[in-house]
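Pasting two entries for a bug report.
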Amino acid sequence: MKFEDLLLEIGGFGRFQILILAILCLPRINLPMHFLLHNFLAATPSHHCAIPHQEAFVNLTTEEVLLISIPRKPDGTFSSCEMFSQPQFHLLLNSSLQPENKSSIQHCQHGWVYDHSQFTSTISTQWDLVCEQRGLNQATATFFFIGVTIGAMVFGYLSDRFGRKTMLQLSLVCSVAFGMLSAASVSYTMLAITRTLTGVALSGLSLIVLPLGMEWVDVQHRTFTGILSSIFWSVGNMLLALAAYLVREWHWLLVAVTGPCLLSIVCLWWVPESARWLIAKGKVKQAHRHLLRCARMNGRKDFAVSPEVRNWRSRHALTKMATDKNMGGSYSYISLFRTPVLRKISLCSGVVWFGVAFSYYGMSMNLTGFGLNIYLSQFVFGVIEIPAKMVMYVLVNRVGRRQSQAWTLILTGLCIGTNIVIPKPFSSVRSVVAVLGKGFSEAAFTTVFLYTSELYPTILRQNGMGYTSFMARLGGALAPLVFLLDEVWRSLPEVTYCGVAVCSGAVAFLLPETLNVRLPEGIEDVE
């Protein structure tokens, strides 16, 4: 008797599964509020060098003081990182004149003055992470994703070893602790360390929530479960825009996006451990207790008295099922590469995950590049994800997982590439193309979570998700640093995002199709 057959007897998608999914959607909402927080936490408002002895220019307007103190860039705007060593009073007569001496231009000597009309404070304004320190500002996101990368490996292994629910609880508690410590940071070093540790903790949420939900539903509802979970990511995206709009001070914004984890900790007590995992580990009594609870809640009261289940209740029968098809034994990340088919799946899915995350975060962290207000961009990028997911719900069941995964990635790359050639003045066209690209990017992310959880067998599923999540977070960690390449060539970041997305989409064609295929339990099922 297969576990899928057992699920059909106790109800593969009833009130029990709906309750689990509803509770697991809470931490799902919270994830993007941290993963995309860098857009607001480290936002850099317009700024210029602080002008010393400004009180000496009481007879001049603010514009005139800037004119004699700050050089202009070729586009006519005032420089953010340079100032005149001496006031250039002759520019008051004719602002188009050049400074009398080029050597009079120097880097900011007395700090910076920031425009606080949009942000009360960010880490950029708090610690002057601009100009020569701009790299440290972008590195904040990289530190966070390095933490997520480490956490993917740690929680992937631990959740296969000690259980999905236990590690999810640990992840939530640590997320609250490190999130609050981040909000209390008194130096950039403290913030970098605590944000890295927050990334480690949140990685458990990202890694465990979807597989835990999917391991309780039948084959027919796996796609729906994956899409539903992904929709709540988009809800979190939109709520982040609202939270950032209402809370303009970075310390309190961190508190606002961390607080909801407390509700998830409380609600998680009603979520059972994965019965699949319990069976795979030979924990028969616990598995049977959860299955009976599922049957009762789903109205399958005859489950406990059916002859087949009476036999199933014996520890010997359950253990036989658990050890069938290589279900027993100890497995690690090395097991993902020992057999030919699993090796191919692991290599290809790693490339796909890297490409999905690299292009997704490349677009998500460039909110100011399309001519829209930063809060509106965040909200619109969240809204467009929902219809993208709805379309994917149909596509993955019609054309299959593999085709959907490949083409959404390729189209994401093409949209990014298209915006390279569209002139900056056409901001409306650029915005439309960017929103389309964001939709394709989110569709690729939605598909890859569902697709990967179906590719790996139960005994290696969390190891597989841990490895692929590691590759994704590696992409996420590198994505913000690529923006620094604009100093080499203005369009180089976009060219990089485009190329990676298209190439990883092509690799997706090498993966096997999983549409309407039962979840594999052991390695032999895959091979």
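Entry 2 (this is the one that rendered wrong in the viewer):
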Amino acid sequence: MCCDLKRRFLLLYATQKGQAKAIAEEIWQQAGAHGLEADMHCISEMDKYNLETEKDPVVIVISTTGTGDPPDTARKFVKKIQDTTLPADHFAHLQYGLLGLGDSEYTFFCNGGKTVDRRLQELGAQHFYDTGLADDCVGLELVVDPWIDGLWLALKEIFLLQEEKEGMSSVVDAVSNSLSAAPHVVHELNLSSEVQNLKLEDKGVRSSDVLSQKLVDISLVASARDTEPSLVYSVPPVSHSALNIPALPPEYIEVQFQDTHGENPHLSSLISEGTTFEVPVTKAVQLTREDAIKTALLLELDVADTVFDYQPGDAFCVMCPNNVNEVEELLQILGLSEKGEYFVCVKVKQGTKKKGAAHPQHIPERSTLKFILTWCLEIRAIPKKAFLRALVECTSDAGEKRRLQELCSRQGASDYTRFIRDSNVCLLDLLHAFPSCKPSLNLLIEHLPKLQARSYSVSSSNLYQPGKLWFVFNIVEFPACPARPVSRKGVCTGWLAELVDPLLHPNKNTLETKGGSSSTEKISIFARPNNTFHLPADPSVPFMMVGPGTGIAPFIGFLQHRQMLREEHTDWKFGETWLFFGCRHQDRDYLFKQLKCFLENGTLTHLKVCFSRDSSTAEVAPPKYVQDVIRLYAKEVARVLLKERGYFYVCGDKKHMADGVNDAVVDILSMEMEADKLEAMKILAMLREAKRYLQDVWS
């Protein structure tokens, strides 16, 4: 199709960590091959588009952050369209298709996309293509890839309708010709996060559906002993298949090495979420015994000399570096060990074909190479398929090149999920597995995402211990696996554990300095906004807390705060408090045995505990998990939630605990109200909406 006949559509993305943007860029790249022009913008750039006057189709790619919020880049947009004074036909002229990204591990799956979708419908906008909801829990590509495949047929149809109205028959013919090779299918795909509903087999000529993909047919012959696929080996049918691989992403970054003189930027310049505070770590306590399955630490920060303020239940973020040994190893593999302390200047490459190419906001204009790899890039990130595609071009060995092509191809989707995504493989693992792959520095900056600060729940009260902040965490462990032969600790928890080791073991390898004082380690933190996980405003309202393992953290702050209020306001009426706590072994990982003190002084009315791995000699075995304990107190749960309009808080693991608690509460409401399960689920949804059933959960 001639360039002057290309039809335009508006492409908007709202991203938190870069995934929605990367998918939008893939759509933009494929559009040209379909004879279309995608006018792509971040949804926050409201000065560059106007939905009120938009006549062309609109495609929106939007992620979800937190417990179901739209990403930060979409906040102004969402606020604007949620204006209650807008008429019901405000967007009646608008035709759109929306792709939502989310994680079904969390309660409000794809809620960012659903919020925008629902509001656009309320304002009269019409779908020209069914909404897709992609699930990061099972792999975004399982929905994203077929959704993009179907998008071109949907756009073709909407353009044909428009052009028939406009009488532009010559343009209709040109658009039809560009897509004539595609099989005729109904474009209204029923895409959901349920993998079983997806049919991903190639039917017809799949390469003609996605014209930007290339056909590759190179055979990789594995040795006879390699009958099972692995990260580096494939077996039939993948090893014998012609492959549909993504288009090569255009390079857009240029890196220039300078001298070794100067200072790196302050860490506060790397974040835009708020004010950072550099605070000392004044205490560290190991809460678990040495033989516990997980190691839990409590750290105390001194925030007295700052304006950092918090309420019990708040969260905050810790800025953490990548592991120093991994950074050195990466420099060595890249052949840049001697350049680590050199300052580099990062610029956008002149003449790049990348749409809207811009200097990455998380990369300083000038800093040392080591600073970028340590503080700016998530070198542990699971490589996306676009990155694998780019790495193909940096690989000299034919067998390794073929395997990387397979892993980023449509045919190798299950191998990608099994050997990269599910195995938590990172760039370092790939470079070890494919030694002939030698990527350039600019490629890393283009494809590795921003190193994200890690979020933790506050585990203290400013009333109870002014100027101090506690938080609790397990040291995350990633055991070795076939695709990743080395074990690792979590980026942040591993760093924190190493940082506070002198506080945990003050007599280990210490060299007394003159005067006997040692320097106190400091970390950079900032507040995490929009947290509703707080105590009831009315102290007379009863509440229940469910927090097994480190999920107990915010409730320690709740109880400290309540104790101080009881001491300061003896004339106030206080509602009853319940805490359901569980762990594996009573003698190994009962994190806060001082809970009994809160029970004795009346701050805590009821404490119910369970231990999942302890054996019992009782005739009737005690409940193992908190959701089982809750069921034993069904009448009390129903009374607090329904009759006394109390609050219910859940903190901890989403998949193995919070969902079980949710189910237990639904069953309790159903039983006590003598209602069916659907009605009970509606009641629980109303409690969530009223912010009386609150969760602070993680996967």
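Dev reply: Rendering is fixed now. As a check, the viewer should reflect this: The first helix runs from residue 19 to 33.
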